[in-house]
Amino acid sequence: MDHGTAARLAAGLAIGLGGIGPGIGIGIATMGAMQGISRNPDAEGPIRTTLILGAGLAEAVAIYAFVVALVLMFVVAT
Asked: Model-level pTM?
């Protein structure tokens, strides 16, 4: 396997595996927030704020994986 092929394979793995973790994390966080809101509707505001902040931080991990994949594709593979 040559250098370019390995870099492209690594880029695919980086974005694939880098997207799975945040997707699962955001799903679990949303489930917890919905359960919390259904048990205590008066706490909807703080729960929603915390959920949005946590989802943004989890999504940042996916963006980092995307950047790594782009670097692998266009810098390392050439």
From this structure: 0.76
CATH of the domain at 32: 1.20.20.10
Residues 15/65, Cβ–Cβ less than 8 Å: yes
User: Mind giving me the DSSP string for 5-74?
Assistant: HHHHHHHHHHHHHHHHHHHHHHHHHHHHHHHHHHH-GGGHHHHHHHHHHHHHHHHHHHHHHHHHHHHIII
pLDDT above 70 (res 78): no
User: Which residues constitute the domain of residue 36?
Assistant: 3-76
Other C-beta atoms closer than 10 Å to the C-beta of 46 total: 11
Q: Residue 31 has which token pair?
A: 């489930």
Domain count for the chain, please give it.
1
- Would you say 29 and 55 are in contact if contact means Cβ atoms under 8 Å apart? yes
